[in-house]
Amino acid sequence: MRTRVKICGITRIDDALAAVAAGADALGFVFYGPSPRNISLPQASAIFASLPPFVSKVALFVNPSCEQVEEALSVLSIDVLQFHGDEDAVFCQSFNKPYLKAIRVQQDTDFAQLAEDYKLASGLLFDAFDSQQYGGTGHTFDWSLLPKQCPSPLILAGGLTVQNVCQAITETRPYAVDISSGVEQSKGLKDPQLIKQFIQEVTRGNDQ
Predict the structure, then answer these.
(1) Confidence check: pLDDT of 134 > 80
(2) Which entry of 14, 15, 25, 127 is annotated as an active-site residue?
(3) What fold does the segment set 4-206 form as a domain?
(4) Which of 8, 92, 150, 166 is catalytic?
(5) CA distances from 161 to 67, 89, 90 (A)
(6) What does DSSP say about strands 176-179 and 184-186: parallel, antiparallel, or unpaired?
(7) pLDDT of 196 above 90
(8) Is 92 marked active-site?
(9) Strand, coil or helix: what is 124?
(10) How many degrees, rounded to 5, is the angle at CA 166 between CA 61 and CA 122?
(11) In this model, does residue 131 exceed pLDDT 80?
């Protein structure tokens, strides 16, 4: 099965179009103030309006209020919600929208319990743990900790780069990979050439 690609932390129209041109399946938009990739609803609306069809638009939140999510849904044509904080399943499900739940992996992560807790999620996204921040760390984690069988589509994130994504795919066979800092020229600003090279390496991983 072909590994899908999500380019996260999009802040500019040119970056969004470069990702689409390179073959990205989904784009991620961060609505979390402390993130250097945070964008406003008007900024996101302008980017959304520039996109061609058949590209999934994913809105990322970290411990948001119901009102924050509802406002974004009222303004933007969001396809998937992504919850990257400590949100419980009841909260994630309350918007009647497909959602991804991010899990920051540690040595003692109980994957079976998480899969049961978030069994209605459209996918589980596994990222590196950092006590100081939620995602966008640029660090990998021990991929061998991941379950061999995951009942939900497995999305791999955390420190992926042009140099390591092929190995990551051959080791974990994820449904999708999610990258942000690994294809940036600076925080929040993507590098079109790195995006292109990254997706080429994903294709190479699929062929192995």
Answers:
(1) no
(2) 127
(3) TIM Barrel (3.20.20)
(4) 8
(5) 35, 30, 34
(6) unpaired
(7) yes
(8) no
(9) strand
(10) 35
(11) no
